[in-house]
Design brief:
The complex is a heterodimer of chains A (389) and B (238).
Chain A: H1 15-30, H2 35-52, H3 61-83, E1 92-95, E2 113-115, H4 116-142, H5 145-150, H6 157-186, H7 193-221, H8 232-257, H9 267-287, H10 300-322, H11 340-348, H12 352-355, H13 363-369, H14 372-383
Antiparallel strand pairs in A: 1-2
Helix pairs in contact in A: 1-4, 1-10, 2-4, 2-11, 3-4, 6-7, 8-9, 10-11
Chain B: H1 2-29, E1 34-43, E2 47-49, E3 64-72, H2 86-90, E4 99-107, E5 124-131, H3 136-143, E6 146-149, E7 152-156, E8 166-168, H4 185-194, H5 201-207, H6 214-237
Parallel strand pairs in B: 3-4
Antiparallel strand pairs in B: 1-2, 1-3, 1-8, 4-5, 6-7
The chains are: A mainly alpha (389), B alpha+beta (238).
């Protein structure tokens, strides 16, 4: 057993494992409107994020997503209970003064009766969306986008580098804009309004251009501009296979997450997409002889974490096949059933709070998260070793 | 240059007309897909499919509202299979001031129409008593559990358990259907009184779980433990 196979060995889990775990939970949440299960999924994501997030700046993403989720629920409840006449039931909570609307505005009302059914329906539907949002938020908080991009296959290497550069420099734009505006203020100029915005945009763009030219030069000097001698046909097949495959993966993910889509759209096209893109990546990978610098290992904890997410989705799909009535309330006022298989599956997804290795804390992390640019250049220097050819 | 331009335009026109022909010809003659869904009907001498959605119609006192789960091709309409009249359903019910009485006939349809592996229960009739302004959907909600999705009535009393409308490619819709027995309100009352004790509809659901919803309490405890654990862990790490 290697040390990386032990959950006690402190390191960053492979970001792909976190994403698989989160996608499993999101797929589970997408198959039910039962508030009991959705609340447990929310609790599970919160617990795992609290236990295994790092000190990096993106680790706060979960709180932001949670707030967004609450806003989603609030908007849904307010709009549906006050503006829609389609979901009103018979248990009147309170009656607001109503503004009569012409007949053309069928299904819409302003004010009037607000019933318990309408409020609960809106809440349950909003809760489902909120839960899926929190699953995505958990993946964002737990997995570093930069590390994920570092593990893109060789065929997509150029794309990966471009995205990493963009991700690294995007925060810098904000800092730049703040600096330029502060300079404007110091000179006694107004820093509000459209004209000041126009004045800010120019220097910021100029700075960005400067920086990109500088970066391009430094990358070129380190051998990044090396062209591989691949034929046009091989490049085209690689590109077509890869992007066709990725498109299939997107369609498949959509099919899996949307319960009402035809079944052919789900797993089959996901598998076909994965097969296509792995072909493309294999073909493309043959021509690039790049090695990866300190690759994230895919060891036992990665298998366990992604397996836990898979277990949650599998338990929910099994319940949907055996006992679909438990996943959807017959009516908004009904007492929710508790399907224990589904709940058990979701609870398995809480295990990564212990099974995943705890992320390293302290100086190493701060170095990664501190001035983005210098760390990027450090990683450029380090990546240099990949260019063995 | 001009010829190239013309050639491109011609190619485009060919392409468009081809796509147009392709989309028209094979599907125009193919059978239109049919959908399984809860159809909303009103009785006025004969059953007619309601031209507006349930939320937009305001049925009047003494009306008969029909709901039928069936594979409805556009033609023929498939209303509830019954000829019950208003008095048979609402005869024993009285409405107060500013209220209306409506007979609601719910037909869960045939076993052939049932969605994947579900069994339709016996059709039932109920009398709804509501304020004058209540709309068709509220009338249904007064007598049944209604599951909605995207503004449509998707399930009545938990049937079907999931999904909203099912698409069937090659529909074979039976024409004249024989009337079937509907469970009348009196039948339901009689069945209940033969049981151990008379309960009202609200208490019935919780009665199944012995009065107190223990599974739900368990879930609530679980959520509290998970959330509390998250907060404690976050505090400890901060």
């Amino acid at each position: 057993m290697r040390p990386v196979d032990l959950p006690s060995y402190s390191r960053n889990l492979h970001p792909g494992a976190w994403w698989l775990w989160a996608i499993g939970l999101a797929a589970a949440a997408s198959r039910t409107t039962n508030p009991a299960i959705l609340l447990i999924i929310l609790g599970v994501t919160g617990l795992v994020v609290a236990a295994r997030r790092s000190d990096a700046p993106w680790a706060n993403a979960y709180a932001a997503f949670l707030k967004l989720a609450l806003v989603v629920i609030a908007i849904r409840v307010v709009l549906q209970s006050l503006l829609s006449s389609q979901s009103q039931g018979v248990e009147v909570l309170f009656t607001l003064p109503e503004i009569p609307l012409p007949d053309a505005a069928a299904g819409i009302k302003l004010g009037g009766m607000v019933t318990a059914e309408a409020v609960l329906r809106a809440f349950y539907e909003g809760l489902q969306l909120a839960t899926i949002l929190c699953c995505v938020g958990a993946a964002n908080a737990l997995a570093s986008a930069r590390r994920l991009l570092r593990s893109v296959p060789g065929a997509l290497y150029e794309l990966g580098v471009a995205t990493v550069v963009a991700l690294t420099f995007a925060p810098q734009l904000v800092t730049d804009a703040a600096r330029v505006r502060a300079a404007h203020r110091l000179r006694g100029r107004d820093d509000r309004g459209l004209r000041s915005l126009a004045r800010t945009v120019m220097p910021v763009l100029e700075g960005a251009l400067d920086r990109s030219v500088e970066l391009a030069a430094s990358m070129d000097s380190r051998g990044y501009g090396r062209t591989t001698d691949a034929g046009r046909v091989s490049r085209l097949t690689t590109g077509l296979l890869t992007f066709g495959g990725l498109f299939g993966v997107c369609v498949g993910m959509f099919g899996l997450l949307d319960g009402s889509s035809p079944p052919m759209l789900g797993l089959p096209s996901l598998l076909a997409g994965v097969a296509l893109s792995s072909c493309g990546i294999a073909v493309g990978g043959r021509r690039t002889r790049r090695t990866r610098y300190r690759p994230d290992p895919w060891a036992l904890p990665e298998w366990m974490v992604s397996g836990c997410g898979f277990a949650a989705a599998a338990a929910m799909f099994a319940t949907a096949a055996v006992d679909p009535a438990a996943l959807h309330l017959p009516g908004p006022l009904a007492v929710p059933e508790v399907p224990w298989i589904a709940v058990g599956g979701v609870l398995i997804a809480a295990l990564p709070a212990r099974l995943a290795p705890s992320p390293p804390s302290g100086s190493l992390h701060r170095a990664v998260s501190s001035p983005a640019r210098s760390s990027f250049e450090a990683s450029l220097a380090a990546d240099q070793r990949r260019e063995t050819a | 240059m001009a010829t190239v331009h013309r050639r491109i335009v011609r190619a485009l026109i060919t392409l468009f007309s081809l796509t147009f022909l392709l989309t028209l010809s094979p599907f125009a003659h193919a059978e239109a897909p049919a959908y399984k869904f809860w159809g909303y009907y009103q009785y006025d001498g004969e059953w007619t499919a309601s031209p507006v959605g349930p939320a937009e119609s305001t049925p009047e006192d003494g009306g008969i509202e029909g709901w039928r789960y069936a594979l409805n091709a556009a033609n023929p309409e498939r209303p509830p299979r019954t000829d019950l009249d208003f008095e048979e359903v609402c005869g024993d019910t009285e409405a107060g001031d500013g209220e209306k009485r409506l007979a609601v006939l719910i037909d869960y349809g045939t076993a052939e129409d049932a969605p994947n592996g579900e069994q339709p229960s016996q059709p039932e009739a109920a009398c709804a008593v509501l304020p004058e302004a209540a709309n068709g959907q509220q009338v249904l909600e007064a007598v049944a559990d209604v599951r909605t999705g995207q503004g449509l009535v998707c399930g009545v009393n938990g049937y079907p358990a999931s999904g909203c409308s099912e698409t069937v490619a090659n529909a074979d819709v039976p024409a004249n259907e024989a009337a079937v027995d509907f469970a009348l309100p009196e039948d339901a009352a009689a069945a209940e009184s033969t049981g151990s004790e008379p309960t009202d509809a609200g208490a019935e659901q919780e009665g199944d779980e012995g009065g107190f919803p223990w599974p739900l309490a368990g879930v609530a405890a679980l959520v509290v433990v998970l959330a509390g654990g998250a907060v404690l862990v976050a505090r400890a790490r901060a």
